[in-house]
Design a protein that fits this description.
With 291 residues, this protein is an alpha+beta fold. The chain folds into 2 domains: 4-144, Trna Endonuclease, Chain: A, domain 1 (3-Layer(aba) Sandwich), CATH 3.40.1350.10; 164-287, Aspartate Aminotransferase, domain 1 (Alpha-Beta Complex). Helices cover 30% and strands 31% of the residues. The strands form 3 sheets. Strands 1, 2, 3, 4, 5, 6 and 7 form a 7-stranded mixed sheet that branches.
C-alpha cells in the first residue's frame, strides 16, 4: 500500500491535540525509551502549559515535551527551554531533558541550538504523518540528541485504573505478572488481605478496597520494578547489597526504595525472599500497620 505523507498543520482532519493524544497514549513511540506519561497540558505559572511531561520509570529522568506543527521557530525554542527550566527548578531531584517535536527541523534551528554547546539537554524529533487508506500513521525520527545536562508540590503518579490484561499486553508480559504475583504472596504474609490494584502506570496494593501503597510494582518485559516505602538508611542499603538485590535510584520525594527483579536472576533465592519480606514488614509498620 502506498504511503502518502501529509502536512499535519495543513490537514483539516488532524491537529496538535491529536498528535499529543497519540504520544500520551503510547510514549515509547518517540524512541526515547519505555517512558510513561506523568502529565499533559501541565500548567506553568505565568508561562502557559507544557504539552507533555514524560518520565523513565527506571531512571526517573523526566522529559519536557513541546509539539509544534510545521517548522520550528524562535518562540517554540524559547518556550520549550523555559518549560524545561521551570520543571527542573521545581523538581531538582530528577534529571530533566527538553524535547522539541516538529514537522520540519530547520537548519537555522540546528544552528541556534549549537550555540548552547551542550549546556541545555535538548532533543529534537522530526514528526511525519502518513495517510494509510482512511487512517493516519506517525513516525518520529530523532535529529538532535542531548549532549549533556547543564546543570514542593504534590506530584503523585496519575493513578488511572486499568486491569491485568493491560499490564500483560501493554507494559509487561504474562511471566512478569506471574513474578508480581509471587511478590504479592510475600506481601500477603505481612498483610493477608492485600490485593493488587491495577493502575495505568503502576500496580499498587489495596486492602478491603482501600489503596495502601507501602509497596508497588511496575512489571516490564523482562523484569519487575518493586518500590518499598522506607526511609533511606545505611542498614537497608547494606541488606540489599548483601543479598545482591539490584537497587535503582532511591526516590527521595516519596521516600521509597526501588529494586529491579529480573525473571532469570536468582528467582528462587531464599535470602532475597527473606530480605524482601523483612523490608515489606517494616514498610507496612511504618505505613501504619494493619487497620
Amino acid at each position: 500500500m502506498k504511503l502518502e505523507a501529509v502536512s499535519i498543520k495543513q490537514c483539516i482532519t488532524l491537529n496538535e491535540k491529536w498528535v499529543q493524544d497519540q504520544i500520551a497514549e503510547d510514549p515509547p513511540i518517540l524512541g526515547l525509551g519505555d517512558l510513561i506519561l506523568k502529565d499533559k497540558e501541565r500548567i506553568q505559572q505565568h508561562a502557559g502549559r507544557l504539552d507533555l511531561l514524560l518520565q523513565d520509570p527506571e531512571t526517573l529522568k523526566r522529559y519536557e515535551v513541546e509539539i509544534q506543527l510545521g517548522a520550528t521557530d524562535e518562540s517554540h525554542i524559547i518556550r520549550t527551554i523555559e518549560y524545561w527550566d521551570i520543571e527542573r527548578k521545581r523538581y531538582p531531584q530528577y534529571e530533566h531533558a527538553a524535547v522539541i517535536i516538529a514537522e520540519n527541523i530547520t537548519s537555522r534551528f540546528l544552528n541556534v541550538i549549537q550555540l548552547f554547546n551542550g549546556t541545555i539537554p535538548l532533543i529534537a524529533i522530526k514528526i511525519t504523518a502518513y495517510k494509510v487508506g482512511n487512517e493516519y500513521a506517525l513516525t518520529f525520527v530523532k535529529v538532535l540528541d542531548e549532549m549533556s545536562l547543564g546543570l514542593v508540590d504534590e506530584d503523585e503518579p496519575i493513578s488511572e485504573p486499568t486491569d491485568r490484561a493491560f499490564w500483560e499486553t501493554k507494559r509487561g508480559t504474562t511471566k512478569t505478572l506471574q513474578l508480581t504475583d509471587s511478590l504479592l504472596a510475600l506481601v500477603k504474609k505481612v498483610e493477608p488481605r492485600a490485593a493488587l490494584k491495577y493502575n495505568k502506570h503502576y500496580i499498587g496494593i489495596e486492602v478491603n478496597g482501600i489503596a495502601r501503597n507501602f509497596v508497588t510494582f511496575m512489571p516490564r518485559k523482562a523484569h519487575v520494578i518493586m518500590t518499598i516505602k522506607l526511609p533511606k538508611t545505611d542498614e537497608t542499603d547494606s541488606l540489599l547489597d548483601e543479598v545482591a538485590l539490584q537497587k535503582l535510584n532511591y526516590e527521595n520525594q516519596w521516600r521509597q526504595y526501588r529494586i529491579k527483579l529480573d525473571l532469570l536472576a536468582n528467582a528462587d533465592d531464599e535470602k532475597q525472599k527473606e530480605a524482601i519480606l523483612n523490608l515489606v514488614k517494616e514498610a507496612n509498620e511504618n505505613f501504619g500497620g494493619s487497620f
